[in-house]
Design brief:
Elements lengths: L10 H60 L2 H18 L7 H14 L4 H15 L5 H11 L2 H15 L7 H13 L4 H14 L7 H11 L8 H14 L10 H26 L3
Helix pairs in contact: 1-4, 2-4, 2-5, 3-4, 6-7, 6-8, 8-9, 9-11, 10-11
């Protein structure tokens, strides 16, 4: 036999001691009073917890309502459609898993820097989106008809970010992203630019100088070996498409997405500008 340390008595042991003390000192009336007190205290505790939960929920709903009212209609519609589209993409295989939910929430929290009230709003949108009977095709058509080309590029960029939170990204979801690009009427060139960038980004940490150069070509949507005239043309086109002012009406967070994209484009172009200036 092995010695096993005994566990400390839990609440059940404490309750038994109280019952015995009440019975010995006051008999049955004291025992009834004890049970009444415990019942009252338990109900009071439940009511306090319920009131606290209701108060917090009410407070957050008020904050969310104020936040929504402070944003443009385009911003709110963009986020609503974005959440619904991301949820529908996650549900394509017939399941909406906890990791997929976390990927969507983490995206808003860490990539878009959403605060507590904004995250509460997103969680409510996700909850509603899970039961939304509208299919993915209808949502994409509504997005395409409601937003210009530049916001559609931002949407596709965000979809690829979500897909690439899974490593390696599922082949069926990559295939779906290409179909989404077609429905949104995004050019093959732009779709390949976004997809290629994320493909090379996976190997960025262990990349050699040659692979980094391939990544910079991918950021600009070019095949390796393109001359400087092609690079300059691609840079000008992308600078126009991803200029932050083109998506400013969607809100500050999406303007920052465009700014991050512009930084990537500028870094890639700066690399080639220096390379060709030095005659390499």
């Amino acid at each position: 036999m092995y010695y096993r340390q005994q566990n400390q008595p839990g609440c059940g042991g404490c309750l038994l001691i109280l019952v015995m003390v009440a019975l010995v000192t006051g008999g049955a009336p004291a025992l009834l009073n004890l049970f009444g007190f415990l019942l009252y205290s338990g109900l009071a505790g439940v009511l306090v917890l319920f009131a606290a939960f209701w108060g917090f929920t009410y407070y957050m709903r008020r904050k969310v309502a104020s936040y929504e009212a402070s944003q443009t209609e385009s911003h709110n519609r963009f986020v609503f459609l974005l959440v619904n589209i991301l949820v529908k993409i996650a549900q394509v295989d017939g399941h909406f898993t906890r990791p997929e939910l976390n990927a969507i929430l983490n995206f808003f929290q860490y990539h878009l820097r959403y605060n507590q009230e904004q995250m509460y709003w997103v969680k409510q949108l996700v909850k509603e989106a899970r039961d939304n009977p509208t299919d993915l095709g209808q949502l994409l058509e509504e997005f395409r008809n409601g937003f210009a080309y530049e916001p559609r590029l931002i949407l596709l960029e965000l979809i690829y970010q979500i897909i690439h939170t899974k490593q390696p990204p599922p082949a069926d979801e990559l295939r779906l992203a290409r179909e989404v690009a077609q429905v949104l009427q995004i050019s093959v060139y732009d779709q390949r630019t976004i997809e290629a960038k994320y493909m090379y980004r996976q190997r960025q940490e262990a990349a050699s100088a040659g692979q980094l150069e391939e990544q910079y070509y991918a950021v600009l949507g070019l095949e390796p070996g393109a001359d400087f005239a092609e690079i300059k043309k691609a840079y000008r086109k992308l600078s126009m498409q991803y200029h932050p002012d083109k998506v400013g009406h969607l809100g500050e967070e999406f303007k920052k997405v465009a700014e991050e994209k512009m930084k990537e484009i500028n870094v890639a172009y700066g690399y080639f500008e220096k390379k060709f200036a030095n005659g390499r």
